[in-house]
Amino acid sequence: MTAELVRGQNHTLPQTRLEIRVSAGTPVVAGATLGDENGTVRGTEWIAHPGSPQLPGLEVSRQAAADHRLAVDLDALPESVHRVTVLLALPTGVGGPARFGAVASPFVAVTGLDGTEIATFTLTGLDTESAVAALELYRRQGAWKVRAVGQGYAGGLDAMLADQGLPRAAELARSIQDAVTRAMARSVAPPPPRTPDADRVAPGAGAPGPVPPPDGRRPAPQPPEPLAEPAAAPPTATTGGPINYAHPRRQSTAPPPPPPTAPPAEPGRPAQPVAGDATGWSMDERLYNQIWGMFEDLARTTAAYRSAVDFAESRMDQELDRTLSDPRSRIGGAGDRAREQARAKRDELTARAREALDRDLAQLAAESAVVEPALPAAFAGWDNPVWHAYRVPMEIPMALRIGDLHLPENPGLHIPLLVRLPLERGMWIDSGRTASDAAALMDSGRLRTVAMESAVAHAARLLAVYPADEFSVHVIDPAGSAAGALAPLVRSGALAGPPASGAGGVSSVLARLTRRVDLVQMAIRAGAADSLPPDLDTGEQLLIVNDFPHGFDDRAVTQLRYLADEGPSVGVHLMMVADREDASAYGPVLDPLWRSLLRVTPVADDHLADPWVGHAWTYEPPRMPPGSRVLEEVLAKVAAARRPRRP
């Protein structure tokens, strides 16, 4: 049965030798890019286009045409390739349409070699775009899937290639369009029928593909036909030629694939989830990449469901409008029958979309149930048993969990929200009344207390994942109103000093941290790190500021802005606990401060926007299990590890 995809929806591919058929109604340029595990196109040798139509396992048309057939053999792709993106672009300089909104919606079908359709996608909703990423084939848990993308680019082919991380994208785009312009006079004959053949890997139009060696190993990739002088390939790119970069004794910077920890899934059944099944050099990196993949899958499967529901509602409205526009249909039972039929079609489409969503959500929930218990302390929630065996680490982890994300379609499926370490920017914990139900049920005083407790929890996690004496926490509490929330940090002795209060305390802490930023920046610019004063703590620093802007004068505000802008690059980070409305008296002077910080909330709130799929993610802050003393125990171990090292 053919899967009719909508934007964002995915479908498992039952085979690896495929054709991708494009029907556009007007001549278009068809190409494809190869992406690594991060979706990055490493160079021009990873792009198949009319000037260089063949890559190992991939062949595209040699010129612009209204209909295309692209040949794909997923088993013949290099091991480092995890994504194949099919691109369509309108040719320039030939007098044709300049935007997809002026032509019929392109239609793309993924088929078997015998022409049997596996999945189809109609690229609707395009307007000013002149290039579009139509769909992508990608690896997921050892299997290949197809995803309907439909991402258009008004900037054309060069904007699309640049978005995939390609250097010199504009130059390559011009070269492709020039080659297409020269070939527009020639007609395109459809490629001959393709039949399964064990001796051919990726057959092309009249040109056989590479023949695998008798031992069944993957053939060495061959260099593409150059269109323009390509950028220098990275040492990890397998570009063919006299040097074989896939030699087993040659070290590669590409992360290795995950070990085979589970048997392959039976055909027609979902793969069994395994913790750490993504690529990476270490288990932590594999888990990090796997969590990112879960986030991406949840975003896109939900986007597909919402799009399908919107389409069903729109189709029902259109059918009712057409039926009821005829006065004769409004007489008797014809109108009632038309309404019933339209609603039945709407319900059928919605039910099919929900069935697909539930299937994907069940798979993600099963994966989450396997991944969550396997997470290291830096990635784990406070209720994870890994904290009971906590030891102060010897090195900094790659990321830190600062909460969870979920969507209303399945509130129980939480995806960890991870940020990379060292922090690239500070955090702003919003203590104001937001539009969330949880915030509406609290009075302003309680909300400020919960916000400060959340800041203490974030600071404790940062202290816990850094080696001893490599991370320090300072606190500014001008009025001393956060004594209760700060008690775990104060009692444990994990703070660099007692919380600063009053005008003098605020001024002293800000002056000390500002001086540190200035000195480290000057030392870095001069290349004289050894000349720093011996009393200067060069470890990472976190400043928690409570109840801003109360108790801060103009000079202190200027220093805070300076720390927010310049501090992260030299290891000084800001954590503001504040209500933006309270700071409105300062006017727009503080807008850059808020924009430079990552806003999180102390209660559940759907304030995190995903512009790619249009979601509003609900953020859940980290929670302590009721009655648990895990926070105090972790801070006690941190303080004990720091104490012997102090002079």
Protein described:
- The chain is of the alpha+beta class and about 650 residues long.
- It has eleven helices and 21 strands.
- Strands 1, 2, 3, 4, 5, 6, 7, 8, 9, 10, 11 and 12 form a twelve-stranded mixed beta sheet that branches. Strands 16-17-18-15-19 form a five-stranded parallel beta sheet, with helices on both faces.
- The longest helix has about 40 residues.
- About 10% of the residues have low confidence.
Molecular shape: globular
Structural class: alpha+beta
By DSSP (H or I, 4+ residues per run), the number of helices equals: 11
Between the first and last Cα atoms, what is the distance in angstroms? 72 Å
> How many strand elements?
21
Low-pLDDT regions = 185-252
Keyword list:
647 residues; alpha+beta; 12-stranded mixed sheet; 5-stranded parallel sheet; 11 helices
Write the layout of secondary structure elements.
Layout (H helix, E strand, L loop, with lengths): L2 E3 L4 E3 L4 E19 L11 E2 L5 E2 L2 E2 L5 E9 L9 E7 L17 E5 L5 E6 L8 E10 L2 E11 L2 H8 L5 H15 L99 H42 L9 H38 L27 E8 L8 E6 L6 E4 L6 H4 L3 H22 L5 E6 L6 H10 L9 H25 L13 E9 L5 H13 L5 E7 L12 H5 L2 E3 L4 E6 L4 E6 L9 H13 L5
Could you give a quick summary of the protein structure above?
With 647 residues, the protein is α+β, with helices and mostly antiparallel strands.
